[in-house]
Amino acid sequence: MLKPQTSPTRELVGLDGLWKFAVDTSVPASPWTATLPTQLEAAVPASYNDLFADAAIRDHVGWVWYQRSVRVPRGWAGERVFVRLDAATHEGVVYVDDTKVAEHVGGYTPFEADITDVVTAGGEFRLTIGVSNELTNITIPPGKVTVTDDGGRTQDYLHDFFNYAGLARSVWLYSAPAVRVSDITITTDLDGSTGIVGFDIETTGADSVNVTLRDAAGEVVATGDGIAGALRVQDVRLWQPGAAYLYTLTAQAIVAGDVVDEYSLPVGVRTIEVRGTEFLINGTPFYFTGFGRHEDSAIRGKGHDNAYLVHDFQLMDWIGANSFRTSHYPYAEEVMEFADRHGIVVIDEVGAVGLNLAMGGGIFGGQAAPTFSPETINDRTRETHAQAIRELIARDKNHPSVVMWSITNEPASNEDGAREYFEPLVSLTRELDPTRPVTFVNVMFSTFENDLIADLFDVICLNRYYGWYVDSGDLKTAERKLEAELLGWQEKFARPLIMTEYGADTVPGYHSIYDSPFTEEYQTSFLEMYHRVHDRIPAIVGEQVWNFADFQTKNGFARVDGNKKGVFTRDRKPKAAAHALRTRWTAPRDAD
């Protein structure tokens, strides 16, 4: 799906701001048919949960409603008019006045509706958006809604981050011609010093398509025509980690010799390859340094904020991080675009976290039911999962920063049914995008001895917490166990390994002369132990600490004001470990 933009043939109006807001229990049935009877206003983009001083809203399970008036620019007569939501977590429905125009399941990818036939250029309409935060066994991520004895509803889920919901990303109104460019797929390759930019363009009925590629200075470096082909760029400048270079490809839809639509997008020329236990970018071995992260900040929840975007990337640059994983869902498109422009490498992850009922018992407990069964994670879940993969790749396929697809985090990959569930999803991912490696993120329960799916993937990502959840406070024992396990993965699978999660909860300002858990000293010692092991395992090609910053989790005894594994606090103050990481990650790495 192409992101809306302004161009010589398109216009874009942002609908962010304050919207009327109400939960479903406080409005009549069919609330889209009239003005919402509420005094509450909610910011868009933002999760709604922490905006109000009302626990009933924070913990609400079900639908909430947003509403505002929108005027269509009068100059849009004769154009197609669309409303687009960058995300609605986790299910959305859109009404223009009394007419339902769109509905969508999946909380982190965009959807839109052509509303031309129900609006008028220069006219005003009532835009009402319903958003549901409910998670069930067939949603991605999964969860369970329980009705309590008093008729209330509670939401349970197995992922360790708060179930923020609402309109956390922007809403847009845009115009485009009836005959237009509807999709573009870019691939890149190298032939010596010549860059090859492949293109595949879809239109809604153009006679022909013209394609132009310009360099960063705006000079034309290649042209082509047709809906598919390849452009050759002599002496190409590559998109490199830490040194991004972007060309601009412009596609023009032609009808009867005239340009009727024009769409442009940035292009980074680079190659990706997995060779043995190496991960190569532009033919050079790459070592991932960085973080698992969350879209999370005080008050906004998962609401996208450009100030946080800039500051977070500045902190990653300061600490020497060259990459991150979009744990555990697709991030806002602005994040991906920023990574493109600044040469940050991204492991792009679909929202499939919590596919592991053993996590319901915690690291020390068991489970009451198998993860994969007709009553739990089943064929309908997999259909939802497949759609989430389709939408992620459709949205992010052209980002040069995205070097790998992660199709799940910490699934029950050691349980019966795991291979039957995941093998079709791996095949689908490769079919949709044969140019990028595919990975999954393995949980500690699933070892190299009992994991049933690791051989399906190009790269194996591992989350390990020796020294925290296991052997807490005993880093000597943890180091022996960690090394032994990594050697087992290396020997059995002989492919790249990335440590995508390792960390220890740390209370800022808590200190000790001993390696005491929860102290800043222990977090530093914990990370240093892992790094010693990483440096002894040739197949390890990256390390992404869990987590970049402290983040909010659901209520419960296991967390006090959230997960404290960040090397930065939730308001982005560095803990001691941040300085230690900076020392390691800014030092030159050995060539081997």
Automatic annotation (TrEMBL):
Q: Which organism is it from?
A: Microbacterium pumilum
**Keywords of the record:** Glycosidase, Hydrolase
Q: Start and end of every Glycosyl hydrolases family 2 sugar binding domain?
A: 14-177
Q: What is this protein called?
A: Beta-glucuronidase
Every copy of the Glycoside hydrolase family 2 catalytic domain together lies at: 272-586
Question: For this protein, what is the EC number?
Answer: 3.2.1.31
Q: Which family does it belong to?
A: Belongs to the glycosyl hydrolase 2 family.
Q: Which SUPFAM superfamilies match?
A: (Trans)glycosidases, beta-Galactosidase/glucuronidase domain, Galactose-binding domain-like
InterPro entries, alphabetically?
A: Beta-gal/glucu_dom_sf, Galactose-bd-like_sf, GH, Glyco_hydro_2, Glyco_hydro_2_AS, Glyco_hydro_2_cat, Glyco_hydro_2_CS, Glyco_hydro_2_N
Q: Pfam families from the entry?
A: Glyco_hydro_2 (PF00703), Glyco_hydro_2_C (PF02836), Glyco_hydro_2_N (PF02837)
The Glycoside hydrolase family 2 immunoglobulin-like beta-sandwich domain is annotated at 179-270
Tell me where on the tree of life, at the top rank, the source sits. Bacteria
